[in-house]
Amino acid sequence: RMPVVTPLPAGEGGARAKRGRVRVSVLRNYRNQPSGTVSRARSLRRNATESERRLRRALREAFPEAKFRFQVPYGPYYADFLSFSAKLIIEVDGGQHADAIEYDDARTRYLEAQGYKVVRFWNNDIFENLDGVLSIIATALSPSPSQA
Fold this sequence. Notes:
Layout: E1 4-7, H1 14-18, E2 22-25, H2 37-46, H3 50-62, E3 69-74, E4 77-83, E5 88-93, H4 101-113, E6 117-122, H5 123-128, H6 130-141
Parallel strand pairs: 5-6
Antiparallel strand pairs: 1-2, 3-4, 4-5
């Protein structure tokens, strides 16, 4: 994939901007992804489960300073909720995940090897104990004493 090139607005960047310099940023997750990755992520976002929608609203309300991306491609997987700054991935699992334990374990190992903490919740946890779920997420977002 080609990097996204954004021209600097006039007046920004001093003399360099006046000479036609541009700022280059690469979409970090879509680099080296197979064809169809972005469209699948969009489809996952559009067809979110009720538990994912409920948690998404709750995350925005409870942690407005935290930046979570929703249904993000990461390596060969898609993360339900991902915070780059907190290095945290939140997964919302429905009943189908009871039959995919080995797949989920491999996925968790991969994401943890990339430096992320993975926290999983069952759909019914979100419906029946949203405050408890948010409490666990708050703990995961808080830096540990060794990081402070």
